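quick one: flavin-adenine dinucleotide bound model?
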Amino acid sequence: KPINERQRLPVVPQGIERDDFLKALAELKGQLGAEHVEVNDKPLRDGWYMEHPNTHDMMTILDEEELVASAVVYPSNTEEVQEIVRWANKYRIPIFPISMGRNLGYGGAAPRVRGSVTIDLGKRMNKILDINPEDYTCLVEPGVSFYALYEAIQEKGYDHMWIDSPDLGGGSVLGNTIDRGVGYTPYGDHWACHSGLEVVLPTGEAIRTGMGALPGNNTWQSFPYGFGPYSDGIFSQSNYGIVTKMGMTLMPNPGGYESFLYTFQKEEDLAPLMEIIRPLRISNILENVAQVRHVTQAIAARGLPRATFFSSSGPIPNNIIHAAAAKTPVGDHTWAYYGMSYGPAHIRAHKLALVDSEFLKIPGAKKIDTSTLPPDEYFWARDRVAAGVPDIHELRWVNWTPNGAHIAFSPVSPIRGTDATALFALGKAAHDKYGIDFFPAFCVGLREMHLIVEIVFDRDDVKARKAALDCLRDLVDEAAELGYGEYRTHLVLMDQVAKTYSWNDGAIMKFNEKLKDALDPNGILAPGRCGIWPKRYRGRGWEM
Ligand code: FAD
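yep, here:
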């Protein structure tokens, strides 16, 4: 039978006998209800984005069985999360929390340690606890998706408030934010926009951060800091706690908006374009987390497989991509800048005129008349997302290969021509070496940009998976040699990326490990996440 049809024995966390594990699970069933504890003995089915698995990574880069859960549990409230954590401590069972598990490109729903018990918080803890139309804030549980928050605000008729969504709206507002994900309105830096967390610590106590620590306060979602050390930071991209509630700020409806699209003809236009973007972005004339995208990804975003254009192996040649681009309504180009201007028409006019005069200084630059673009053109997906409307059009480039999966290389740099050029050259050389098509997109924050390079591969093809991973491993090390580091990474690369942050003999990891040992003495919570291993795992061959 094919692997996705086979019944499987449950994976057991290392160091525990199968029977002891099943007995411990039976005890947990008694606490949570049998229907809220599921053993992972079923076929590993990948589904698709909206019906994704919670037992493994549907876009796996390793063999699918490598990073799988032994069981999945579904708490309904903070107290049940505390019970699960105490249970894990009692039996020394690794647990791995997910909010919704759509962390595609970074590991999906998979745990870092095979056989961990996944805590799927999103299934039952999916309430919007508050939407405050006066303070423009909300308080959400882990299972609230960008779609759900958007729809709730629409239903209540709160037209004066917007949310900010990443490219795909099916993820968790909380999960995306604590992984420091990004969206595309002026509120695109999600972590910077959150205010207040409720967290279950690895020993089972619950805390509230910021103003949430003061009983009876009414500023938990308005003032993020509270008093004393600002602790929220240690609960993002870490394994120090399970976040059960999060406050988020909402953007005021700007009173109008207008997307725009400029194209640039040559690869070398990247450097002067970045020099133009930087002052405009820092001074907020360019207002949102915009994208500067390469034409190869633009062609892939049309949803047709690569084989439509090119059937040989090796990177798709430039002339084929440009010929394909020439036939699209946007026309031939190498780079496209997707941006949005906010506010009433007269305010936008001033900003747009400045942008226009600056962008058109680059020879061959074109402003696209977007009114001529058909409704299913990719531009309109960017338009929706930059206006805070969740979408899933972005998934289309994953169809580039059969059984399309992807993994991301995401270094950060200042918004500079020299940095953009260096990262582009580095990425291009590595992709050429491994025969992979290169999809670079620069997401421009306020003073930095994330270069997001998506490697699309056939997840059923062992060679393609290996090439993608080898390429990424080279990229991480070569980027670090030039001084660039990743803002976020896939589970499989976490050890490698963590090692690149090595200043002063790895002082930051020593600090992280001290915190881990103090907060999680039994090392049960998400061991290895972000390269942080608890004491009982360290130096025992867990690193990849
Ligand atoms: P989860 O998978 O639930 O959480 C992410 C991770 O955080 C988990 O693996 C877990 O380790 C940790 N975690 C989650 N919840 C908790 C908790 N309560 N307590 C402790 N730890 C927790 N991402 C972007 O940011 N911006 C984009 O524009 C973007 N575009 C994408 C485009 C495509 C085509 C694809 C496929 C992916 C894209 N992604 C993007 C990546 C990903 O889809 C999103 O970041 C998504 O929101 C993450 O999944 P999630 O929200 O379900 O989080």
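The domain at 258-493 is CATH 3.40.462.10 (Vanillyl-alcohol Oxidase; Chain A, domain 3).
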